[in-house]
Write a sequence for this structure.
């Protein structure tokens, strides 16, 4: 930060702290917050149709390249909603994409 006299202050932040701050505001942090409430499951799927954050960590990295509904939503910006029985939680869910 430079002041009007020409003097400046420089501060350094460790890479670990930058990573910590970045993760705090990342997709997975948002998903963890949502799934801690009444949301049954949450996924963030990028435009390459790969899961990059998920309430089930085992699903991170899963590809939905062959799923036309996911493609329509993630790539083409359409929306989708359906109701079905989610066996993993033994609950009826309203699935919104």
């Amino acid at each position: 930060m430079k002041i009007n006299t020409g003097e400046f202050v420089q501060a350094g932040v460790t890479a670990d702290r930058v990573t910590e701050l970045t993760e705090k505001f990342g997709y997975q942090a948002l998903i963890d917050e949502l799934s801690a409430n009444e949301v049954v499951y949450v996924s963030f799927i990028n435009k390459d149709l790969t899961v990059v954050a998920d309430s089930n960590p085992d699903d991170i990295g899963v590809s939905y390249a062959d799923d036309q509904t996911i493609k329509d939503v993630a790539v083409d910006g359409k929306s989708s909603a359906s109701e079905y029985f989610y066996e993993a939680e033994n609950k009826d869910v309203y699935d919104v994409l």
Remarks:
- The chain has a mean pLDDT of 88.
- The longest strand covers residues 81-86.
- Strands lie at 43-45, 51-54, 81-86, 91-96.
